[in-house]
Amino acid sequence: MPAEDLHGRLPLGGVRVLDLTDGAGAMSGRLLADLGADVVLVEPPGGATARSAPPLVDGVSLPFLTQSANKRSMQIDWSTPAGREEVLALARAADILLESQTPGRLAAAGLGREVLHAANPRLVITSVTDFGQTGPYRDWVGTDWVHLALSSVLSRSGNPGRPPLMPPGRLAAEHGAAQAAWATLVAYWWALETGQGAAIMTNGDQGAALIAEIKFAIAAEYGWPGYTPRMVKVIPVDSTALAALTGDYQLDYRGQTLPLSIKLQNGKLIASTPVLGDDEELLPTSATKFVSSVRGMEFAFSGNVLTVTADGAFVLKGPRRE
What we know:
Layout (H helix, E strand, L loop, with lengths): L2 H7 L6 E5 L5 H9 L3 E6 L12 E2 L2 E2 H7 L3 E4 L5 H12 L3 E4 L5 H4 L4 H7 L4 E6 L14 H7 L20 H24 L3 E6 H19 L16 H5 L3 E7 L2 E10 L2 E6 L3 E5 L1 E2 L13 E4 L2 E5 L5 E4 L5
Parallel strand pairs: 1-2, 1-6, 2-5, 6-7, 7-8
Antiparallel strand pairs: 3-4, 9-10, 10-11, 11-12, 13-14, 14-15, 15-16
Helix pairs in contact: 2-3, 2-8, 7-9, 8-9
């Protein structure tokens, strides 16, 4: 099948996208292009700065190639009156406009949201920035690591009690671009239904925060080390059964054998072990009926899930991060 025919049969076949991104948010246009949209990347004279982003092979930026696949491109100096009119002409014929310029730069060039919507009321405008279009941080520049740290993603990266490990690549930027593409499609559906355009504003922190939300949800479900599973209302367990668990144990933890001491204090199980924590309460991770035995029950302890085996021993349950 010819490429043109295949392109027209994709979900976004016939959708026209004007792409004014440079680096940040560029993957949003790539995702829309992969779905069949006709994406035109507008670069300044001399090309986008993203063309020099490392790593380079024979002088060609691999990140730029990845983010620009399936796009067409052209160069326009939209800081000039003639270039401004050319961009406005493209915007009048477009369904979606993506941009990642410094907040206020497009408006200063006479291409702000009000001007663009006056030219095309149905236009969906998506702006991708580091810290949003307004507020005290709007003019700040953030790296991928800064966004991951501010969004708490790094609290789940690496071993508990140690400095976080930095994820490879541009995790925050690429995830933010995917979220921007999704939000853009929701707004485009709204434009099709109502005839009204929309202005979508996303930033790096928002995209990274959604990564944290997903990671914490998984951790809560499976009790990965470094995160305490979510708690629910617990019906008390017979104190006699709890007392039966007191004593000294050997806990298998990431290939190490750690001493685990359990004691009953004021009707609560208190555990301590090197590395994981000292004198911390063992909390059941799910509601139970009033029982006289704790065999098979699961307890949260210092971000881990401990389960009691049939012979009364404690074992670490759930995926391990080596």
